[in-house]
Design brief:
Blueprint: E1 15-18, E2 21-24, H1 27-37, E3 43-46, E4 63-64, H2 73-83, H3 90-109, E5 116-117, E6 120-121, E7 123-124, E8 134-135, H4 142-155, E9 160-163, E10 167-174, E11 177-184, E12 190-194, E13 197-200, H5 221-229, E14 233-234, E15 239-246, H6 258-262, E16 266-268, H7 288-301, E17 307-310, H8 316-322, H9 324-331, E18 342-351, E19 354-356, E20 368-370, E21 375-376, H10 388-404, H11 430-444, H12 451-464, H13 475-496, H14 514-517, E22 519-524, E23 528-533
Parallel strand pairs: 1-12, 2-3, 2-13, 3-9, 13-20, 19-21
Antiparallel strand pairs: 4-8, 5-6, 7-8, 10-11, 11-12, 14-19, 14-22, 15-18, 16-17, 17-18, 22-23
Helix pairs in contact: 1-4, 1-10, 2-3, 3-10, 5-13, 11-12, 11-13, 12-13
Function: Catalyzes the oxidation of L-aspartate to iminoaspartate.
Cofactor: FAD
Enzyme class: oxidoreductase
């Protein structure tokens, strides 16, 4: 079994810090929730790097909300449920589609400048959306604009204390409640922080895979520490791979937004042939999992490591105006979006599963909340609808604060010291282990899976488990331990689900099995793996 804590510690000897609310992580989830909580609480916000290091910053497409008179919550609900492949929780989706517009209004009040056309909010359409409901900022820099606005407010807010470059090691629990967190400071010393509510906003685990659109900080820390603490983890088999990340020598896997296809871009294999008509009637605007697997199939058929995305039929003016960030980025590598076909390939992008929550963001551990990609609210089901993630973070961030404002203070964590007789960890091999883990996950637990490969992955992962009981000291070691924990959860869940659904595709079970598998996968540190039926839709 994975040990309860990642390090040994004695709470009596730790410096103690008490506040009202502790927010772990940044991004739109952490920043928005911290700002709303600060209206009636003292907030301590902890980031392991800085306010600008999150998946939100790199979100290009936008935020989905019903704004147009030609749209409705019912249309948004239907699109979300279809993309979620039968695993969305209807109540959570209803909350999202009805509260999303209010969340957008609040973002605007906080200073976010969304793009406008003729004095009205500009809306675009993305894959699997039936209406134009995607708000964007600076063309294709929506995430950066949201983070900019919220970060400015947070830094200037006297009720929010910011701890940058601090690493949260574990959650501190007692009597079934989360009392606080164990934090390692930049100088290596440790401190225990306590509050009446702890909110995980730590993002996903894209760094599980060799190729990802996620930043280096996306190492699944929140999911791993919640699992160690005994929280229920749900649907970890559903990893969304973005179909179109830049695939070019010397360039990182930079995201080529869904919105590019939304504006009419087409996909071609290396022979120059458009191919999506062979795979789905919605062509390039099909759900992401279908587009990603179609690209892999074409790459294999043509013995190539990429396909092309082509928007050269649009005017250079439109392309530069709508996609300035992507245009400039590609230009740095000698690729002109207005005249060149851009080489792309799928990359790990978003985790639909995470820490299971109720409709107010509370986990199975009292006073522990989760918001954003780290959570599993039930909104995304087996396959997230494009641009719903930013909406989810705002909507459920507000609901978390509504719940927290009704909580009373609680006693601080007073348990005895925790010791597991740890031996020294091997030095200097963590980066190599991490790379091997990432390559293995791509090969056996990526876009296409089967029992033999998943069994092989699980055997390899179990060989690494003893490391979790060693004396880990560096941030790289802690991150690897968290990635390893998440890898075990993903692989175990993928092995358990003997069907193909949404972002989970089993070559040995290629069909969706509605009577048997229309249920969530539940993982718990002490109780193991199980299933839970989906709420009625």
């Amino acid at each position: 079994m994975i040990p309860r804590y990642i390090v040994d510690f004695d709470p009596v000897k730790l410096r103690r810090v008490e506040t009202d609310v502790v927010v772990i992580g940044a991004g739109i989830a952490g920043l928005y929730t911290a700002l709303k909580a600060s209206e009636t609480n003292r907030v301590l916000m902890i980031t392991k790097k800085s306010l600008f290091d999150s998946n939100t910053r790199y979100a290009q497409g936008g935020i989905a909300a019903v704004i147009s008179e030609e749209d409705s919550p019912d249309f948004h609900r239907e699109d979300t449920l279809i993309a979620g492949a039968g695993l969305c929780d209807a109540a959570a989706v209803d909350v999202l589609v009805h509260d999303g517009p209010k969340g957008v209004e609040q973002l605007i009040k906080f200073g976010t400048h969304f793009d406008e056309e003729d004095g009205r909010l500009a809306l675009t359409q993305e894959g699997a959306h039936s209406r134009r409901r995607i708000l964007h900022a600076n063309g294709d820099a929506t995430g950066f604009e949201i983070v900019r606005a919220l970060a400015e407010k947070a830094v200037a807010n006297p009720a929010i204390e910011l701890w940058d470059d601090h690493f949260v090691l574990d959650l501190l629990t007692e009597e079934g409640e989360c009392r606080g967190a164990l934090v390692q400071k930049p100088d290596g010393s440790r401190v225990a922080v306590f509050g009446k509510a702890i909110i995980l906003c730590s993002g996903g685990s894209g760094q599980l895979y060799r190729y990802t659109t996620n930043p280096e900080v996306a190492t699944g820390d929140g999911i791993a520490m919640a699992y160690r603490a005994g929280a229920v983890i749900r649907d970890m088999e559903f990893i969304q791979f973005h179909p179109t990340s830049l695939c070019y020598p010397g360039a990182p896997r930079f995201l080529i937004s869904e919105a590019v296809r939304g504006e009419g871009a087409i996909l071609r294999n290396i022979r120059g042939e458009r191919f999506m008509e062979k795979y789905h009637p919605q062509l390039e605007l099909a759900p992401r999992d279908i587009v990603a697997r179609a690209i892999i199939s074409e790459m294999e058929a043509t013995k190539s490591t990429y396909v092309y995305i082509d928007i050269t039929h649009e005017t250079p003016e439109l392309i530069r105006h709508r996609f300035p960030t992507i245009y400039e980025y590609c230009l740095n590598y000698g690729l002109d979006l207005t005249s060149d076909w851009i080489p792309v390939a799928p990359a790990a992008h978003y985790m639909m599963g995470g820490v299971n929550t109720d409709l107010h963001g509370e986990t199975s551990i009292r006073r522990l909340f989760a918001c954003g990609e780290v959570s599993s609210t039930g909104v995304h089901g087996a396959n997230r609808l494009a641009s719903n993630s930013l909406s989810e973070a705002v909507v459920f961030g507000q609901r978390i604060v509504d719940r927290i404002n009704g909580l009373t203070a609680q006693p601080a964590f007073v348990s005895d010291k925790y010791s597991d007789d740890r031996e020294a960890a091997p030095r200097g091999a963590i980066l190599e282990r991490r790379l091997k883990l990432q390559k293995m996950m791509v090969r056996y637990a990526g876009l296409r899976r089967n029992k033999a490969g998943l069994m092989k992955a699980m055997e390899e992962l179990k060989r690494h488990i003893p490391l979790l009981r060693m004396n880990l000291r560096s941030r790289e070691e802690f991150e690897f331990a968290n990635l390893l924990t998440c890898a075990v959860l993903v692989t175990e869940a993928a092995l358990n689900r003997e069907e193909s659904r949404g972002a989970h595709y089993r070559e040995d079970y290629p069909e969706r099995d509605e009577p048997v598998w229309r249920k969530h996968t539940i993982l718990h540190r002490e109780h193991g793996i199980g299933e839970e039926r989906v709420g009625n839709v």
